[in-house]
Amino acid sequence: MGKTMLEVKDLKTKYITRFREDVYAVDGVSLKIEEGKSLGIAGESGCGKSTLALSLMGYYFPPLHYISGDIVVDGKNISKMDPDDIRRNILGTEIAYIPQAAMNALNPTQKIIRFIEDVIRVHEPKKTKKDIYDMAKARFEELGLPASVLEKHAVELSGGMKQRTVIAISTILSPKVLIADEPSSALDVTSQKMVIKMLKNLMEKGYIKSMIFITHELPLLYNVTDDIMVMYAGQIVEKGKAKEMVFDPIHPYSKGLMGSIIVPEAGSRDVKLTAIPGTPPNLKKPPAGCRFAERCRYATAECRAISIDSKEFEEGRSYRCIYDVEKLREVYGNEK
């Protein structure tokens, strides 16, 4: 086993609305990523993926609030650190975040190099402009970005180039963990491919030690990550190796998620796509039992009544369901 870069234990965070209502968006999430590994997190919109991404940085500001749990980055527990300490000593160097719609994060009136200077001087205030330029030029060129981008404004760059520029800036200080939230969404296929190639390049060259890749496109993760976790209504419902999660999902939600997506493989022409009926539960008042029960065709009265914990059934594989694996596979087999 490699060195653990990020370990999260039973993390719980919530939003407090302007009406003083609590929304439990991340509820008891645990995960671990080792050096050199990447983890994918998949799920439909509103399941809590982006909130989890924000929560993992330990940097909370209203309306997002920390409740409990531990976030350990390369041996440092950051879950209860002072926000200023996290900003100065953790963000950018230990853990970095690429938000959704990151291409819009750049100031349109500021040259890219000025943006990089601001990022670096938070951590290394004594670095000269020349030192920063030389450092940025070398990194950009190594990642396949022309050095001329540094002297341009964001409005002069295409969407794909802006996204790759934001990724380069976010990783300029070589963080231990990179969290990429939907980094390839809103891009054409060619730009998506370049973004994914760039992220893999960062891992291969050791500029980042581990990565979390968040998307609603589960099959995309098969080509990008080592492991996949499926999230639903603030909880992790299944996790395992990427190939297993795509081609042999166990939890009824994971199965439904894959059944609603075209996977390019032999025989896919004859496969019918299926939709998952219903809508996710209201996280202001989460249900007492399984959160997927109201949308699950196999749910029983017991599923709706009791809280269900994750079960590990193989090394590195677990799922959150009242049924055992054999029973689920039997049911799935009978439906074919």
TrEMBL record:
Residues 11-258 form the ABC transporter domain. Pfam families: ABC_tran (PF00005), oligo_HPY (PF08352). The keyword Protease does not apply. One of its GO terms (molecular function) is ATP hydrolysis activity. It comes from the Bacteria. Keywords: ATP-binding, Nucleotide-binding, Transport. GO terms for biological process: peptide transport. This is Peptide/nickel transport system ATP-binding protein. It comes from Anaerocolumna jejuensis DSM 15929. The lineage of its organism: Bacteria, Bacillati, Bacillota, Clostridia, Lachnospirales.
